[in-house]
Amino acid sequence: MKQQTAEAESLTAMSSVTVQAPARLHLGFLDLNAEIGRKFGSIGVAINSHHTIIQISPAENFLIQGKDLTDNLKLKIRQICERFYESIGSQIPSANRCINICVKQTIPEHSGLGSGTQLALTVGTALAKFHGISISTPSIAKQLGRGKRSGIGIATFDHGGFVIDGGLKPNQTVPPILAHMDYPADWKIVLVMDPHHQGIHGTAEVQAFHELPIFPQENARLISHLTLMCLLPALIEKSCDDFGKAVTDIQALIGDHFAKAQGGRYTSKRVESCLLEAQRLGHSGVAQSSWGPTGCIFVENEAKAKQLIEHLTQFAKTTFSDGNAPIFIQTSADNHGAVIESSM
């Protein structure tokens, strides 16, 4: 902290800093029971279809600007900045806090893609780089109140790829990373997004975790077994089918546990219909990311992804007559994490 203070006091911010961070899919928890002392433990992967991009530059006054910037998003960014200057940047003189924050792109909120964590980490990292403060991403997350349940967003910010974290001990704020590896570049992921629905978030999410029944220890053991003996070997051996089967089995256990809070195994009935249709076609790997509503289907190449999207698009036209059909997006993994650029 002394080094950070010295750097903050000695630096006059003159550079522009841009940080771009990928969205992530949260594919399940290892143990919601915590019977052996650690709680949660998460499985996830960074994706390149959605990003949060923040640019910070000098200004005469504190400004937050950007295309399609809502009042709610503006408030969130302001609160992140306030928390930053109360903790990490507490020694920065007030005159040096006059900055222009330009929001160039954001991940859709409450869609299950990790928008909140990536916004906090992107703004926090940009502020730290702008003010010349050397600090790790886990430390930024801790000071900004992120990573309380999952370390996936923190790890994918730093490294991208496929990640498993080890959950939290009592009074621990950021979980350790147990495994990190590149996700196969030729594998594709078909996102099924419902723009007319939002996943559980905020106080409702906190309440849901409090009210959920105790997660059966046998299910935690089975998820851990599936992760260690199916999911990870499938990635190393590049077997998309085996990977998909393991994800689907894990998702069934987690989704059914969350069913009372989210209205079923999947939070969006439109997304659920499309995932079931994909399974009917023979696709083994389907999932809901976090609380949804975004669903995902794992396929082994681009040709199969395009074919699946064509089929699901037609399926949606004939199934959802109200015109509120899901949106289908082909994406792949982001294996490099956040990109940070600065200029004088």
Question: Could you describe the 3D structure shown?
Answer:
With 344 residues, the chain is of the alpha+beta class. It folds into 2 domains: 2-182 and 335-343, Ribosomal Protein S5, domain 2, CATH 3.30.230; 188-331, GHMP kinase, C-terminal domain (Alpha-Beta Plaits, 2-Layer Sandwich). The protein is built from 11 helices and 11 strands. The chain has helices at residues 2-10, 71-86, 115-130, 137-143, 152-159, 202-211, 217-237, 240-257, 259-262, 269-280, 302-319, and strands spanning 16-31, 40-58, 63-66, 99-105, 162-165, 177-181, 188-193, 285-288, 295-299, 327-331, 339-343. Strands 1, 2, 3, 4, 5, 6 and 11 form a 7-stranded mixed beta sheet that branches. Strand 8 (285-288) and strand 9 form a beta hairpin. Helix 2 (71-86) packs across helix 3 and helix 7 packs antiparallel against helix 8. The longest helix is centred in the middle third of the chain and has 21 residues, at 217-237. The protein is globular, with a radius of gyration of 21 Å. Mean pLDDT is 92; it is low at 1-13. This is Putative archaeal sugar kinase. InterPro entries: GHMP_kinase_C_dom, GHMP_kinase_N_dom, RFAP_synthase, Ribosomal_Su5_D2-typ_SF, Ribsml_uS5_D2-typ_fold_subgr. It holds the Pfam family GHMP_kinases_C.
